[in-house]
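Class, look over these structure tokens:
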Amino acid sequence: PTPPYPPPPPPQGPPPYQQPPASQGPPQYQPPAPPQGPPQYQQPPAPQYPQPGQYQAAPSKPAFDPKSIDILDWCILGAGVLLLIFSFFAYYTASFHYMGYGASYSTGGWHFDAGTWPGWLGFFVAFLSAVVVALALFVPAVKLPWPPYLTAMCGFAVGFLLYIIGFFTTTSGMGHGFSYWISMILALAGVVLAAMRHQAQGGKLPGNITLPTIGGPKPPSGPPMGGPPMGGPPPQYPPQQYPPQQYPPQQYPPQQ
């Protein structure tokens, strides 16, 4: 049988909009707990300094000043350098003549035969005397058992006597060149210069001899060379004074 009416047509559009259910309100925001105060800062301990008089700082090494060296010291060092230079020149001369022909030659002081050893030994002892003065001036840490200028004076004197002996030990036919004579004069000058410096440092010369003073003594900047004078007390140095250490107050940024 035929139905009484046809079925309804399908809907011709989007489905009707349905209002979403109402929300229950914004979420409950929980703020973070406030800090309990600034962080606990531990003040570093203050450095401990010794009390004045308990510690003496080592003196700083001053820069080398050529003007601080006495002119007589420079003369002694110059004598040692000249002794070394002239030892390579004509210390000895020799000449030969045969059948109308002649020949001559010269040699330095570095020979030990034909009776020439006193000249070489005299040079060596005198040169070492200048080295003693150089050590006392530029390497004061080296301590000598005797005063340096007295040691140098005796060394130059021994060198001068060896040069004198050398005139009687060479073989016949040999002579002494200009370097031998100059070296002997330099050794004698070293005796006088070292004696003057020893006297200027407060030392006494044999026989209470008094020599003129040239250049004058320098104001001491530390212990005298060779230790304190004989019979005198050791030098006294005042203790170092240190001001109290000041620290600025610590600054902290404000907490947010």
User: Anything to note?
Assistant: DSSP finds four helices and three strands in the chain. Helices lie at 71-86, 117-138, 148-169, 178-200. Residues 178-200 form the longest helix (23 residues).
